[in-house]
Write a structure and sequence with these properties.
Length: 362
């Protein structure tokens, strides 16, 4: 990373315009909103100043004051990660100078503007684009950027994010990293784990929407929603379960009723068996597979924090019996961080990962 002080022939008070100015505004807004999460408070907006060289305005810079005791590693990672994400999104160059009392962040415009790509759309194509839901277009924009970096990406689908307090509708984008998670790629995986949620937040913030990123095994799901009442874990981390399901639609309801009745019946049978030991939701359409998912949350009688291994074994055995009874496939996932067992019955995979994602994102 660059560790230099922004150089300029003249530095003046910034003008509220241009991608570099808006990038700094986004960074300040993000740090102010996520103050609880990273324990960093901006008491007042620091002045944004303009970088002027021989050709005119070259960018903008800002000095963020350091907290008492200096920046922690978590604070540095969040500031640097979000700034780098903004440079990628707005096609800027970044300069960062970590100092004892503050950090200086400068965004510079590239020397040459990138050439426009693609052909002009026809009226029919523009009309179809205009008719698309805003959430779908934001999720698709995230997918397009990740495809360019080698990610395997599925098409955004209508989805619902469920928490203990409410449910919000939006769109979900499922993706896999360019390589398998392993010890050989641990360092790069850690970078992607930090980058993807921040990239999703930048795209969603640009459109006035909210985002959330959940990881499960080797699949990462990005969720975007219009709902203003939902707050991402980037800004307000709290102990609460979160899971994403396929959104119910009128067409999907009838399709599920006729083609996936077995998965619904299997979920209901499991729910009836263990309703005394768990708090359960109704069977919900699973995301990524043709089937339904049952969320089983521990009651206080089951320990509240951890569930007895015998309980997990009993649920797994009952799931196997229901698989044979209804001729289905199933998975049981223990999520101790959410005090939950997640059981999914399905008849097949929804989309083949081997199909290139460039076709529908082009």
């Amino acid at each position: 990373m660059t560790q230099v002080r922004p150089s300029a022939d003249k530095i003046a008070t910034g003008i509220a315009s241009g991608p570099s100015y808006h990038a700094i505004r986004y960074l300040i807004d993000h740090l102010r909103a996520s103050g609880k999460a990273i324990r960093y408070t901006l008491k007042a907006d620091p002045p944004i100043k303009e970088i002027i060289d021989e050709g005119g305005t070259a960018g903008h810079w800002v000095a963020l004051p350091a907290p008492t005791g200096g920046f922690s590693e978590a604070q540095k990672a969040r500031i640097e990660g979000y700034a780098q994400t903004l440079t990628y999104w707005r096609k800027l160059m970044l300069e960062i100078d970590w100092r004892e009392r503050d950090v200086v962040i400068a965004f510079r415009a590239p020397s040459e503007a990138p050439a426009a790509e693609g052909e002009e759309q026809s009226f029919a194509e523009r009309f179809r684009e205009w008719m698309l839901d805003k959430g779908f277009k934001v999720a698709r924009g995230i997918g397009r950027n990740l495809v360019g970096q080698g990610f395997k990406v599925r098409e955004p689908v209508p989805a619902t994010l469920v928490t203990s307090t409410h449910q919000v509708n939006g769109y979900a984008l499922m993706l896999r990293y360019p390589f398998d998670r392993s010890d050989d790629h641990a360092g790069i995986t850690e970078v992607y784990d930090r980058m993807v949620p921040l990239l999703a937040d930048v795209f969603a913030h640009e459109a006035g929407m909210q985002s959330e990123t959940l990881r499960e095994a080797d699949v990462t799901t990005v969720f975007v929603t219009r709902s203003k009442r939902y707050v991402s874990t980037l800004y307000e981390p709290r102990f609460d379960f979160r899971f994403i399901t396929r959104r119910r639609t009128a067409r999907g309801f009838f399709e599920d009723w006729f083609t996936l009745r077995a998965t619904i019946r299997a979920c209901r049978a499991l729910r009836a068996k263990y309703k005394k030991g768990f708090t359960m939701f109704k069977p919900m359409p699973a995301l990524g597979v043709r089937g339904h998912m049952l969320a089983m949350i521990y009651k206080k009688g089951a320990g509240g924090v951890v569930v007895d291994e015998a309980y997990i074994l009993a649920v797994s055995r009952m799931t196997e019996k229901l698989m044979e009874r209804f001729h289905l496939q199933a998975s049981v996932r223990h999520r101790p961080e959410n005090r939950m067992l997640q059981v999914t019955f399905y008849s097949g995979i929804d989309v083949d990962w081997n199909i290139t994602s460039k076709a529908y994102l082009a």
